[in-house]
User: Fold these one by one.
Assistant:
Number 1:
Amino acid sequence: MPSLYLDQLNITESRVRSTVSPEPQVASPTVHSATEKPRTARRTRQRSKEQPSPSLPSVIKQLPGRPLHNQTLKQDPPPKRALRTSEDQEKEYWRRQRRIFVRSRCITRQEALDLVQSVYRRSTISDHDPLILRCQSNMSSFRSKWRTIIKQMINSREWLALRRKPSSIASKIDRSVLETIWGPWICAPYVKKEAFYKNTKAVKVLTEATAKAIEIALRYHGATNELNFRKEMDSLDPITRNLPLPDPLL
């Protein structure tokens, strides 16, 4: 298995201290009864709730609210062939993650659970299972690789010249561009590459998503606001969430 790239989830504890102004205030004197104790300034603390630390904690923060749309993700049917060994299950589990990434760069916890259950047919899988967290961690790694490929590709005079002509980007995207960006995922044993590129409708959908991704990357080229860049890239998921992907193992 490839190494996992994890974002660290840091939970910090903030302290709020009450302060007393050193300047005297003009006010009527307060009279305390013999049994009443004068109030003193107290320090208050805000304690962050302790959260469990699963084996892959950094993934938890990626799950809520993502993806930010309601379009259903197309899931592959359960494998027809028998997955008799744990090694067979692991290979299929890894293969399906690559396929689902082409359709959607961000998936919800439930969608990750559906993916895992399609391979590991156990009734005891919960949404905090290490397999779910590992799936989300791998998706994060794929997103990072995908964005890096696009950034490196557009870092040329030819592509940078299109920043002022975003409407011309789609016309520059051919199969070689698609293979450069999507090659690590649209290939055997994940997708039947030749069958996919023969499907003109599927290629048109992928070209649309790719053109918008390049447009976003060009717009943020040289900028330091990485967070907004990632959010805009993630917003492209609805375009491809139902993308047909010929399966080489069917």
Number 2:
Amino acid sequence: MKFLLVLCVTVVSTVAYKCCVPKQMEGNVGHFGGYYQDGSGGGVITGLTRVHYDFYAEKIATVDFDNRIINDFNTSTQYIIVKEEHCWKAELPGTYDDFTCIPDNAIDLGPLVLGIDVLYGRTYGVQTTFEDTNVTQYVTVTEDDCVTVVVDYISNGPETTQIQCIGFYDFTLGFKDPSVFDVPEICNGVETVAAKDAPKLGSHIMQWIRRTGYQ
């Protein structure tokens, strides 16, 4: 996993063009961090997740060991599938672009080079609020095609503080197995619950992969 470069810059600006991930791609996401919760102490957060983006179907799917999450923005529904045996359905706020594009109000922190003339990128700062939790993210993407390289994530809420370093790697265009987006029959007839009531899986990628924060 590649680690985050901490940048110090003196001149910033807002985003001047629409930066979104490629329309169909998949790859790996590794993350490491920690949290502190009032009254119960803290701990380490770590995990490895496979993520798939499909602009045309407006879906994002993630696979984490035996867990699969399908985010269907056409129906504003998130499907949480455990071991292909249990299914939950939750409301999915926002749009596909909210999860895959740098927002217009992001702060452009300037360009960077990873390695010696190896990879040219750009870093953006994004600040949002979700349910009384302030979220700050520093997102580094490739300069040419806006593929995410690393996200530095910090959240401060009334009861919980969290920090994570999230690395994106081995991304390719297209899909090896498009069925990752298919909703299994066990989800038929399942009642949809509010987003806040959905089960939180151990390294549930959609809790922090969104660049603009939850609405």
